[in-house]
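Rotation project, supervised by the postdoc (A.L.). Task for the rotation student: set up a whole-complex structure prediction and record inputs and outputs verbatim in this book. Inputs entered:
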Amino acid sequence: MFLDWLRQRASLTPERLALACGEARWSFRELDERVTAMAGDLHARGVAAGAHVAVLMRNGAPLVTALHALSRLGAVIVPLNTRLTPAELRWQLADSQAARLLHDDAHAVVAQSLTIPCVAGNGLQSSGITLPPPSSLHFPLSQPHSIIYTSGTTGQPKGAVLTFGNHWWSAIGSALNLGLHADDRWLACLPLFHVGGLAILLRGVIYGIPVIVHESFDPVAVNAAIDDERVTIISVVGTMLQRMLEARGARPYPPALRCVLLGGGPAPGRLLEECARRGVPVVQTYGLTEAASQVATLAPEDALRKLGSAGKPLFPTEVKIEHDEILVRGPTVMAGYWQNPEATARVVRDGWLHTGDLGALDDEGYLYVLDRRDDLIISGGENVYPAEIEAVLLSHPAVAEAGVTGLADEVWGMAPAAFIVRRAAVAEDELRAFCAERLARYKIPARFTFVDSLPRNAAGKLLRRELTRLM
Amino acid sequence: MFLDWLRQRASLTPERLALACGEARWSFRELDERVTAMAGDLHARGVAAGAHVAVLMRNGAPLVTALHALSRLGAVIVPLNTRLTPAELRWQLADSQAARLLHDDAHAVVAQSLTIPCVAGNGLQSSGITLPPPSSLHFPLSQPHSIIYTSGTTGQPKGAVLTFGNHWWSAIGSALNLGLHADDRWLACLPLFHVGGLAILLRGVIYGIPVIVHESFDPVAVNAAIDDERVTIISVVGTMLQRMLEARGARPYPPALRCVLLGGGPAPGRLLEECARRGVPVVQTYGLTEAASQVATLAPEDALRKLGSAGKPLFPTEVKIEHDEILVRGPTVMAGYWQNPEATARVVRDGWLHTGDLGALDDEGYLYVLDRRDDLIISGGENVYPAEIEAVLLSHPAVAEAGVTGLADEVWGMAPAAFIVRRAAVAEDELRAFCAERLARYKIPARFTFVDSLPRNAAGKLLRRELTRLM
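Outputs recorded:
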């Protein structure tokens, strides 16, 4: 049994800076007090241990407080992507069996439309309710901490159940790889509803270092924070890093910035080479939601020698390649998909997580991610699953067949493109509007191509990699 | 299930320096190869998973190799204090049910006298035997790693069973407190048969940093290594540090030395003040075998402000005070005493380890160790238990009653002193010789006082704290 991490941290190093976000600059003591107050309030409103609580909030101090408060109560966090449409949100709320939705002002209108008991997170204050006695602040590592939705081949997102242990081991494995310095400060400009953002919050508490949270990604603001806030570690995806470099111009980053952790899919060689030339300490990483973020990371000492590699597994995770697929085993592998034993059994076998991503190990054991699975398009760091878009397109009466694949995109790395076999006349604009009602903006195909038939194998399976030949 | 730590480390960072000891300077790859060879040899000689294997070797590369090789085979290590007499060794061998004794040349003679199958560790070489397949290199954290003997109130040492998990959590808790730098190098001049020395070896592998092992403590050699080997962390006890400072003279330590981890009982204020004056980065720690070494450690930032404190518990360990006694709970607390459920039940209750040591928490939660338990004398970092010495004295026919307590000692901090009620004439020299046959040298009373009676309470319990009044 573990004592609540934030409580433990606040008792160990109460005066260290915990969070810098907007106007807020809170020590661990202050963060702990605010979390206690919000937890008391949530408790008074009926949020109990074991309850699934969805969170629809933008990055900010209220979201940070809410996430820690829910953990403290033993509630299971269901972080929702704020870019989803009401239809997508409704699906995840129903599937996760969320009992409550915690939202901020920016999402008040959509929240009210979702037919679930809502709590306005921004408005939460201490209601003077005291929490249960401290003994309830203990939890086992096997306890679920969060359910994070990730789409897949089935076209419907699946909820990856991540335990406190999954997150703990991820934090420890990362520290053993990147090291841990007394002056470390980690900048989170990724959404906290993604596992990569959430992981930074938890690391801040486990490591006892400040987390700088940006409300959204603005390359100028990020560059300024690196200078002014003495940021030492920042997590980014390729498109973010590209925009940071463009906004930065020729001015070098300060030496205090020791690690630019680059995730979100294979990075373009051009970007890595530019970083090497400019002395940006980029550290490539490969991870996925089902393994609580980082799986393999290039050690800083190898950053130049193994450019393009995602490095080696984090201690004590193991990685192997089987039929070109990357397999992962270790204590960060999820407990399973929420109420989906079939899907869980398909991807976790003998303790090995079958990622579906293609990769290879070189003769020194360095992982190269060759391609994310063929049904995955990574656009600006967001995972986009063709099957999900195809399912929406197929629900339109004029669409007979639909195939979606990724096209290279200057800004986002990749963008989805749709190939349609019509059964009745329909214009591209109408299909785009149809998608916009049902899919988050980053999932809407950037391009529609009408064709006579789709490439399929003998068994009738769609061959997505061959779609681009039809353009 | 975890992959063998050294194997994992060797696959992650094969070329990093792992060990510097005497002439040996081995990378993790080389250490792993030597461990594989020795494990194969031990396996061929019948050492199997689960076997208890006692080790009687002085600090050195062969001992380091042997300890890792035994872990790799899944054998349980019983490290023996090389200062024990044959009688004491025989007792621990029998109690631990050791199947084999691994010894070096220096202990060949005594080993042969112990009536247990012996293996000369120095002479082990690869016999060309291949190990079982890699799947057997996996182990659960709950698996016993070592049984380390620690004496106690009963007069007989008890074997603390420490699991892989106990050692793992200890290493992680220490890293979260002290930080982890890419250039860290930890100097081990403590005996590796103590938990504090053994812990350094395991940390080296888990952290991926070099361990510098000295064959014995020599203050001049230690000071030179700090300069020449770029040592960043060193573990010492008070008497060692005192002698290092004396040998060093006015010359400051290099700034690379960032942590002098000071354990082995409360340190004299004078020593701490001298360190503060001279800028020696001393970090006080409190630990015990039953909790796999460090329990609480003063964070570097508090070293001056909280001089004399042992700091706060390592994440995620909890410490509390009950009736002035220090209680410890967390994943470093031993699995129990080997085949001694009664003793285990006495000290581990509800997950809380009752240390027997007296302490207090100040209003900021910093631990002050007021006194080790009244039956413990810490002499030069070695734990000496009065009951054990009293039992030996009482076995002499001329001794009617015996009481032992600690006296302040210029060199060793404390030294045992005996108070004897005679039933027949016996000289001090005879009692000293009698002890020397049965007790390690550091346990032999520095002083014998013959008295008419011993101070006892109404129930007849010896009041050791009052013995010194009889001098």
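Student's summary: Chain A has two domains: 2-218+322-371, 377-470.
Supervisor addendum: The longest helix of chain A spans residues 28-44.
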